[in-house]
């Protein structure tokens, strides 16, 4: 059986105009030699012919897969099956070695007739399920092979990781099987499908052509999908929402700098049990925990670091080879990493704004370092509870203007992207030597701007984010984190994000 291209990450090229499609193809070929041409995305048959004529002239040296999916199978092509087949035949003459034909079209023709019409090409027989995974997946696979193709593809929407894991199981049955789990919850499976044996994974260069796709850049450069193997150690971050997290940039930069065979994914988790049920099947060795699961995860651990237990929140989990879960809290380390060298904590008086999960880590870290801790929160009862837990005091907002603190720490989300104009305190409230804002998006919040203007030293949440993430990395790997590379990756991502936001009209 002939393999489908040497590069396992297939760039999906899809545009309405032949010139944009050509630009995407040129761009794709700089990074991979396996490309799917979504001819059905071109706005009409004229554009398709213009594109294919250009392809026939240039004949790039690559494995090209021609797809002209009809609307009934989730594509954009409006013409009849006969036109679809004629276009695919033209694509083969223009240099495509493979074509993808959906079961809705191929089932209307015999394999012999398809051979006569498109005999020069190798066929991927495909089936798509955009709403949910089919109940009898093995039957679908058998039906696809019955049409005598050279490869098959089954793409299915998966609403849970367990459904995704089940789909991946199909990849191992026979060579040249492509499995495509679709949906935000199974995003990392776009990469892990290769490890499970899928012949290809698809990634759009620009335009998403299916739900929950990872971009080509993410698959190739962040996750290094083409290097993934059964030996690769898998890590991730769980949360909801999760798309904004910079932890994948931070952690993967660490693995890449130390040349480790490991990868870190973002997992959008709606149901903690679903994620935990997939840990073993996906070979996950450890994961970070973020909102809203830092407390809930405690109930599922086999053991927990005493400090994390006392804080009542876990942001780091180690999975042992026996499948046991151990919890830690590195936010605590992040707080100390950000403040220790700037404030003599043992002799300091610190005000913490907020009484949520992060505030708890801040309060414990500071109290254990000998600081006198005051808690100010919009719900005084919560502030009192936290103050009592760390031997501190609840502090009413009305007294802010008249009291001095060595440091004020914002542990509320006020001022976080996108509401960057907000600040939890006014300039007059800032009677202190240092202001530490836990928020790191934006790096310089409104609160920090107000403090700077008054000549007060400022510390961004970025420092804590980096320190807590590096501590996680060290817990998992037992090695020293490559700090410079990890910091650079996050700063680069933040810079790119700022540039993109500024470029938007
Ligand atoms: P959380 O558990 O939801 O707690 C948020 C706290 O802020 C609660 O006390 C909440 O009060 C209070 N709050 C929320 N909105 C408020 C408002 N409009 N006015 C007054 N108080 C308000 O969240 P968290 O996990 O502690 O996270 C807090 C912030 O820290 C977030 O911005 C997060 O991104 C940041 N953080 C940063 C790092 C880092 O590494 N830099 C790590 C962890 C967290 P109620 O209980 O009354 O709602």
Describe this structure in words.
Helix 1 runs parallel beside helix 2 (45-58) and helix 2 (45-58) runs parallel beside helix 3 (81-93). The model has no long low-confidence stretch (mean pLDDT 95). The strands form three sheets. Strands 7-6-5-4-3-2-1-8 form an eight-stranded parallel sheet. Strands 10-9-11-13-14-12 form a six-stranded mixed sheet. The protein starts with 8 loop residues before the first strand and ends with a helix. The chain contains 18 helices and 20 strands. Helix content is 37%, strand content 20%. The chain folds into three domains: 9-228, TIM Barrel (Alpha-Beta Barrel); 235-329 and 470-480, Rossmann fold, CATH 3.40.50.10860; 341-459, NAD(P)-binding Rossmann-like Domain (Rossmann fold). With 505 residues, it is α/β, with parallel strands linked by helices. The chain binds NADP nicotinamide-adenine-dinucleotide phosphate. NADP nicotinamide-adenine-dinucleotide phosphate binds next to helix 13, helix 14 and helix 17.
């Amino acid at each position: 059986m002939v393999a489908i291209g040497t590069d396992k990450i297939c760039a999906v090229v899809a545009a309405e105009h032949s010139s944009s499609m050509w630009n995407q193809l040129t761009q794709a070929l700089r990074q991979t030699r396996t490309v799917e041409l979504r001819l059905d995305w071109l706005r009409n048959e004229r554009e398709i012919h213009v594109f294919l004529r250009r392809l026939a002239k240039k004949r790039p040296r690559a494995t090209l897969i021609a797809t002209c999916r009809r609307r009934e199978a989730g594509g954009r092509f409006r013409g009849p099956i006969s036109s679809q087949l004629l276009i695919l035949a033209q694509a083969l003459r223009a240099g495509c070695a493979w074509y993808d034909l959906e079961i809705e079209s191929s089932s209307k023709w015999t394999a012999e007739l398809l051979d006569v019409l498109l005999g020069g090409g190798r066929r991927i027989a495909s089936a798509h399920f955009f709403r949910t995974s089919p109940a009898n997946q093995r039957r679908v696979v058998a039906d696809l092979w019955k049409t005598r193709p050279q490869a098959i593809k089954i793409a299915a929407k998966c609403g849970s990781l367990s459904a995704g894991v089940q789909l991946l199981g199909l990849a191992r049955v026979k060579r040249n099987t492509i499995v495509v789990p679709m949906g935000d919850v199974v995003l990392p499976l776009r990469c892990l499908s290769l490890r499970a044996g899928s012949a290809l994974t698809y990634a759009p260069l620009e335009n998403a052509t299916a739900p929950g796709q990872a971009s080509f850049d993410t698959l190739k450069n962040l996750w290094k999908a083409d290097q993934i193997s059964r030996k690769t150690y898998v890590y991730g971050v769980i949360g909801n929402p999760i798309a904004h997290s910079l932890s994948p940039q931070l952690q993967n930069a660490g693995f890449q700098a130390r040349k480790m065979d490991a990868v870190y994914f973002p997992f959008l988790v709606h149901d903690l049990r679903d994620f935990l049920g997939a840990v073993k099947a996906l070979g996950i060795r450890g994961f970070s925990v973020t909102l809203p699961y830092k407390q809930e995860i405690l109930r599922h651990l086999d053991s927990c670091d005493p400090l994390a237990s006392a804080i009542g929140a876990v942001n780091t989990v180690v999975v042992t080879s026996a499948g046991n879960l151990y919890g830690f809290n590195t936010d605590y380390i992040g707080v100390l990493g950000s403040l220790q060298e700037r404030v003599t904590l043992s002799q300091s008086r610190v005000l913490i704004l907020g009484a949520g999960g992060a505030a708890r880590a801040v309060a414990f870290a500071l109290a254990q370092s000998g600081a006198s801790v005051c808690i100010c929160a919009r719900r005084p009862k919560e502030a009192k509870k936290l103050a009592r837990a760390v031997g501190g005091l609840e502090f009413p907002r009305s007294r802010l203007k008249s009291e001095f603190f060595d440091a004020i720490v914002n542990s509320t989300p006020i001022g976080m992207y996108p509401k960057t104009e907000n600040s939890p305190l006014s300039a007059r409230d800032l009677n202190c030597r240092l202001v530490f804002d836990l928020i790191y998006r934006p790096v310089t919040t409104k609160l920090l701007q107000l403090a700077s203007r008054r000549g007060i030293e400022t510390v961004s949440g970025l420092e804590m984010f980096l320190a807590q993430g590096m501590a996680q990395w060290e817990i998992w790997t037992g090695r020293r984190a490559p700090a410079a590379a990890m910091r650079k990756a996050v700063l680069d991502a933040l810079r790119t994000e700022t540039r993109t936001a500024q470029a938007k009209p």
